[in-house]
Design brief:
The chain is an alpha/beta fold. The chain has one domain: Thiamin diphosphate (ThDP)-binding fold, Pyr/PP domains (Rossmann fold), CATH 3.40.50. The protein is about 30% helix and about 15% strand. The protein has an 8-stranded mixed β-sheet with strand order 2-1-3-4-6-5-8-7, with helices on both faces. Helix 3 packs across helix 4 and helix 5 runs antiparallel to helix 8. The protein is globular. The termini are far apart.
Length: about 290
């Protein structure tokens, strides 16, 4: 009698948790983002051995330590070039980049525009708390005008960056915004971003209860995009991100266009899905 084939057990959110416990402050919004990421990975049944989480520097950039996948913590602001490099080196991998508003929109700001141009098949989740948390509460690129911090004791004189408008104006092929206080909705956005063929930008509003507690400020302003909203209309998306009467969340824009993998020769290089070892010699031959 033939033996019955053993079915592979379904992966659960807990299977993506590493042995390292999160070191964020109690109540940090990043816990909600991490929970959403666990749920999203389990829903898509991502293979931990073929998934890479890349981060920069900052409180949110500690996240790769807490996930049972491959991880790479880079230098400040360099999350996107490294994440793109990982994807080019092995297109079979699922690559998720994570970071904060300071890491992504200050020293790393220029990388966002060029990542959008190249449209690599990676997902970028930015945990936006509108303050520098790791260095103990300085003004960030998304801090509101007049915000008083250790670096701006008389109030910030710099207008804040609008990350969604920036990404959309640069030509991003996927743009979404979620709230760490609604992890179920954020999970849906992360799944949609990872499944999107191209660069997916997700702004996760993630309050910092220690240096800028915006939970009570943001929660009543969070609202879904209006009924009948068309995520294929970039101008409609821009009109929503410039609203000053609330914080709309959801899928702002999605467009399928050629990815970095599809119009470069790296798609046929030796690090294809069935390759187990890193063939350095074959890689060098390809670039001769």
């Amino acid at each position: 009698m033939a033996r019955e084939a053993k079915t592979k057990p379904k992966l659960l959110p807990k299977d993506y948790k590493s042995k390292v416990k999160p070191t964020w402050c109690p109540g940090c919004g990043d816990f909600g983002v991490l929970a959403s990421l666990y749920q999203a990975m389990a829903r898509m049944e991502l293979d931990p051995a073929r998934t890479v989480v890349v981060s920069g520097i900052g409180c949110s950039s500690r996240l790769p330590f807490f996930v049972q996948t491959y991880g790479f913590q880079t230098a400040h602001g360099r999350v996107l070039p490294v994440a793109i490099g990982v994807k080019i080196a092995n297109p079979a991998l699922t690559v998720i980049a994570v970071g904060g508003d300071g890491d992504g929109f200050s020293i790393g700001g220029n990388h966002l525009a060029h990542a959008v141009r190249r449209n690599p098949d990676i997902t970028y989740v930015v945990m936006d708390n509108e303050v520098y948390g790791l260095t103990k509460g300085q003004t960030s690129p998304t801090s509101p005008l007049g915000f008083k911090t250790k670096s701006t004791p008389y109030g910030s004189s710099d207008a804040p960056i609008n990350p969604m408008a920036w990404a959309l104006a640069s030509g991003v092929s996927f743009a979404a915004r979620g709230f760490s206080g609604d992890p179920k909705h954020l999970t849906d956005l992360i799944v949609a971003g990872v499944e999107h063929p191209g660069f997916a930008f997700i702004q996760a509003m993630s309050p910092c209860p220690t240096f800028y507690n915006t939970f009570d400020l943001w929660r009543p302003q969070i609202e879904a995009l209006p009924e009948g909203y068309d995520p294929g209309d970039r101008m409609q998306a821009l009109s929503q991100v410039f609203r000053d009467d609330g914080i709309p969340v959801g899928l702002f824009y999605r467009q399928e266009r050629p990815t970095l993998d599809s119009h470069t020769r790296v798609t046929a290089h030796p690090l294809r899905e069935e390759t187990e070892d890193f063939d350095v010699q074959a890689l060098l031959e390809m670039y001769r």
